[in-house]
Write a structure and sequence with these properties.
GO terms for molecular function: endopeptidase activity; serine-type peptidase activity. Pfam families: Peptidase_S41 (PF03572). The structure is a single chain. The chain is of the alpha+beta class and about 475 residues long. Among the domains are: about 110 residues, Pdz3 Domain, CATH 2.30.42; about 160 residues, 2-enoyl-CoA Hydratase, Chain A, domain 1 (Alpha-Beta Complex). It is about 30% helix and about 20% strand. The strands form 5 sheets. Strands 3, 4, 5, 6, 7 and 8 form a 6-stranded antiparallel sheet that branches. Strands 9-10-11-18-19-22 form a 6-stranded mixed sheet, with helices on both faces. Strand 20 and strand 21 form a beta hairpin.
């Protein structure tokens, strides 16, 4: 929950705002909300494979008791959504949260689409908000300005309210901070959703680190994006140095692509092989994952001999889904209904899926044989964490940048169910497969071989510079 200091500041800010025409809240009955919590508890206890990765039974019971206390007297749909986000974040699972994209259209319209946000995008550096792109002309702001206060409120208070809402795996704080950066290109980004719900206003009075004070009008996401530079291509190949190829892959969500990604990779590696490039910089910063099929195809261009992917142990909490839950569950496909049929009972209430070796990958004839640098950051989880782990394990790439997202102890995912809570009208993503690494692994993401502070707006790309410098030192 938001701490007392944060709530005190919320009150101060609210009273100091110019009249903000907030959408009329949808009020929900307390008794009905408690029934939703009962359904939520039944579902996570029956299905969630990572429920006890980081929580004890006592801690789980306490979190559910807090959630019930928060909703027992009734709450608005907005406050219920925030309470659900705070509760699910306590599970420390990057795939368990009220998914913005999976909410009903009416919920999206009410909670996400009527609010004004900041008229600029930003990066974060040690908790400081560094302005990147501006959507207002003659605002008095410029790229690189650092914001200290928003409507008289210190940013430490903003982060103390928003960080507990971020879904991430285990103790990986880098992944939580990464989510709070604002690119301005996504329809729904965590800051754009949560900040207006807690601190929304028609105007934002900013105090900058250099002492200047600037007041700017809030903007809709659509109006702001229309003023930003065109969004970079999802995948792109360039040659920043005569002997270096830079392959930028910002997403593996191929179902959203408007191009043939397999053909793109074939063309890219053909062009690389026909060039003088001896060094490949593979840039996956900001890539939160997607399909592992991309990883398997991509790795074939990077390996020199047949290799096998190293799988984590896969665990379920169920052999069959309880009938009482079925009316409230859905997914992209129906194969989750048979998921537990081949699982065998294991320890501590788990069902273990049969151990399977990862696919054997053979090198692509068009493979790259030179040195590889992999640029990583806190966004990398799921499929991109798998890519980074395998390349590091095989000694095939030097990781440059910052600690990845995800967790070396494993993650939950594979199959995702959409749990719909009937009385609040809200949805929660619920992963079904637990991927378990060694218990002795560090409770964090994958650390880079060369750690580089994130470059701020207006600065040169420090990660790329470090990758090039390491190659020069190696004499390549």
């Amino acid at each position: 929950m938001v701490g007392r200091v944060a709530w005190r500041w919320l009150g101060v800010v609210w009273l100091s705002l110019t009249a903000w025409a907030a959408p009329a809240p949808v009020e929900l009955d307390g008794e009905a909300l408690l029934k939703d919590v009962d359904l939520l508890e039944q579902a996570v206890r029956a299905l969630h494979p990572g429920l006890y990765r980081y929580l004890s039974e006592e801690e789980l019971n306490h979190s559910l008791s807090q959630l019930r206390s928060e909703l027992a007297r009734g709450a608005s749909q907005t406050d219920t959504f925030l309470a659900l986000a705070r509760w699910s974040a306590q599970l420390q699972c990057g795939h368990t949260y009220p998914n913005f994209w999976n909410q009903d259209e009416a919920v999206q319209a009410q909670l996400f689409d009527q609010h004004l946000s900041l008229p600029f995008t930003f990066r974060l550096q040690q908790g400081q908000m560094v302005i990147d792109q501006l959507a207002l002309a003659d605002s008095g702001l410029q790229q690189g300005d650092r914001v200290q206060l928003i409507n008289q409120m210190p940013l430490t208070v903003v982060w103390s309210a928003l960080l507990p809402l971020m879904a991430a795996d285990g103790a990986n704080q880098a992944a939580r901070w990464q989510q709070l950066e604002l690119s301005g290109y996504g329809r729904y980004e965590p800051f754009d959703v949560y900040f207006p719900l807690l601190f929304g206003a028609e105007q934002y009075r900013l105090q900058l680190v250099d002492g200047r004070q600037v007041t700017v009008a809030g903007m809709s996401r659509e109006d702001r994006q229309a003023q930003l530079a065109p969004q970079p291509e999802v995948w792109a190949l360039s040659f920043p140095h005569p002997q270096t190829a830079l392959l930028r892959l910002s997403s593996f969500t191929t179902w959203n692509f408007d191009f043939d990604w397999r053909a793109f990779l074939n063309r890219a590696f053909t062009e690389i092989s026909q060039s003088d490039a001896e060094h490949l910089v593979l840039d996956i910063r900001g890539n939160g994952g997607g399909t592992t099929e991309v990883v398997e195809v991509l790795l074939r261009y990077l390996i020199q001999q047949p290799v096998q992917l190293t799988p984590w142990q896969q665990r379920l909490r169920f052999s069959s889904v309880p009938d009482t839950l079925l009316p409230h569950l859905s997914s992209w496909q129906d194969d989750w209904r048979q998921l537990g049929q081949q699982a065998e009972p294991g320890d501590d209430g788990y069902y273990i899926l049969p151990p399977t070796l990862g696919p054997m990958l053979t090198p692509n004839p068009n493979r790259f044989a030179g040195r590889i640098s992999l640029l990583v950051d806190g966004a990398n989880r799921s499929a991109t964490l798998l890519l980074a782990q395998q390349l590091k394990q095989w000694g095939r790439a030097t990781l440059v940048g910052r600690t990845t997202g995800g967790n070396l102890r494993g993650i939950n995912g594979g199959q995702i169910l959409f749990l719909r809570l009937p009385n609040s009208g809200l949805e929660l993503d619920l992963p079904l497969i637990g991927y378990f690494g060694p218990d002795t692994a560090e409770n964090d993401g994958l650390a880079p071989d060369i750690r580089v502070a994130a470059s701020m707006p207006g600065e040169a790309d420090g990660d790329l510079a470090a990758a090039l410098a390491a190659t020069d030192e190696a004499g390549l």
